[in-house]
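Quick one: Polyisoprenoid-binding protein YceI from Chitinophaga ginsengisegetis, structure tokens please.
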Amino acid sequence: MKQTVPAFALLLTLAACGGASTDQAKTEEKKEAAVTAGAAYTIDTATTTVQWRATHKGGFAPRFGTIKVADGSLNVENGAVTGGSFDVNLTTLLADPASVTEPDKKASDLEGHLKSPDFFDVAKYPSAKFVITSVAPFDSTKQKSLLPGATNLISGNLTLKDSTLNITFPAQITVGEKDVTANAKFVIDRSSWGINYKTEGSPENWMISKDVEIGFSLKAAKK
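--- reply ---
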């Protein structure tokens, strides 16, 4: 039987259209990566899913979709994750057609805009990276979590384009003998990484919320 224990949580970052929540991931300066120890687990890129949700037009037009993890691994020792990292393939960013309701727009239009230099500039920066810096127990009396059943606080360095910051967010992790599953839901501020449409403070940028909700379901298997 599997046991929920301290372990790894994934972050995928997507920031281009904002969302609305007060459960912000704590954002700080870049920190030293955690020293890894224990058995290696490889992230299953076929079954790992990441969702993003945001709003446009001052919050009245929800946008949402998915993005894929390119590769990554984590280390587990004595039932706990000791470190890990993964890369996110920003060229795989997809917008759900149901989130684009304007009659003259398509999901592919939104995808192309998010991939353009206005936002992620994937031609120049095709990937994002997350490196674990620490794993701590989650205390529901001190922290809030959008996801019920959070067990841990995960901190890690998130690199978007040419900027790296450390973020901390709650996650629910389950470690088995041969695999690890992780789920999380949290909010980041795209502008912390300098991702602004047009210029900061412009009407165009104001229409796109700075907050972005990220959700993921991750699975990793023991090598």
